[in-house]
């Protein structure tokens, strides 16, 4: 258990602490299975005090899953000084690594959205839009990101789904059973992107 009892925490610091605990627990179980009592216990506070910071369980879940989305965008953001093709590759390197390291939590993130939980859908969509914008910028067409009905935007959005699912399935295999390395997966993803754009 974390030794986190500290009555000197500001309200904002306490909220950040509670979200951080939620993110840690999200590594092992889906968002809707997080126990409010267990989270409060880890923070060294009562359940009722947790609800002082987050009015409802839903509000808490929204805060945690939103933090997960922001973390994904942050860790997959490459060095701004890289040339576009290198930036795209670096983004994919970090994307695949993120899914591999946090596979259970990531699946929870994706399936929470697929399951129709409105807060999960909204956060997932915002995260996917952020990743799509980034890819379109690397491809030299950032203006397309503002037109979600354009063919180019839809292709990038669909390609991200393909790459994501490939990384999820690949990372779930034993290393000895994986048909290709992480680098080969990324090479394939980039090749499929360029092929898709020619269709």
Would you spell out the secondary-structure blueprint of this structure?
Blueprint: H1 11-25, H2 36-43, H3 47-53, H4 57-75, H5 84-101, H6 103-114, H7 118-138, H8 151-171, H9 182-198
Keywords: DNA-binding
Pfam families: TetR_N (PF00440)
Protein name: TetR/AcrR family transcriptional regulator
Q: What is the tally of beta strands? A: 0
The helicity comes to: 55-70%
Strand content: under 5%
Separate helix tally: 9
Return residue spans where pLDDT drops below 50 for at least 5 consecutive residues: 1-5
Give the topology string: H per helix, E per strand.
HHHHHHHHH
What structural class do the secondary elements suggest?
Answer: mainly alpha
Query: Which shape, going by the Cα principal axes?
Result: globular
How far the N terminus sits from the C terminus, by CA atoms, comes to 54 Å
Computed over alpha carbons, the radius of gyration is 19 Å
On the 0-100 scale, what is the average pLDDT?
Answer: 90
Biggest beta sheet summary = none
Walk me through the structure.
By secondary structure, the chain is an all-alpha fold. It is built from nine helices and no strands. Mean pLDDT is 90; it is low at 1-5.
What are the key terms here?
9 helices; mainly alpha; 0% strand; 199 residues; single chain; disordered N terminus
């Amino acid at each position: 258990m974390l030794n986190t009892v500290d009555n000197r925490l500001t309200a904002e610091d306490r909220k950040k602490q509670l979200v951080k605990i939620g993110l840690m627990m999200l590594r092992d179980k889906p968002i809707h299975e997080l126990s409010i009592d267990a989270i409060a216990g880890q923070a060294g506070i009562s359940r009722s005090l947790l609800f002082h910071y987050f009015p409802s369980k839903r509000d808490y879940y929204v805060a945690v899953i939103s933090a997960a989305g922001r973390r994904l965008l942050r860790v997959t953001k490459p060095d701004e000084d890289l040339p576009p093709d290198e930036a795209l590759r670096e983004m994919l390197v970090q994307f695949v690594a993120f899914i591999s390291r946090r596979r259970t939590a990531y699946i929870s993130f994706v399936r929470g959205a697929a399951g129709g939980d409105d807060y999960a859908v909204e956060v997932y969509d915002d995260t996917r839009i952020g990743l799509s914008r980034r890819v379109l910028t690397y491809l030299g067409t950032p203006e397309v990101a503002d037109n979600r009905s354009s063919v180019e935007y839809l292709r990038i959005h669909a390609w991200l789904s393909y790459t994501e699912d490939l990384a999820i399935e690949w990372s779930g295999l034993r290393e000895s059973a994986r048909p290709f390395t992480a680098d080969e997966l990324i090479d394939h993803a980039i090749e499929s992107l360029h092929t898709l754009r020619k269709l």
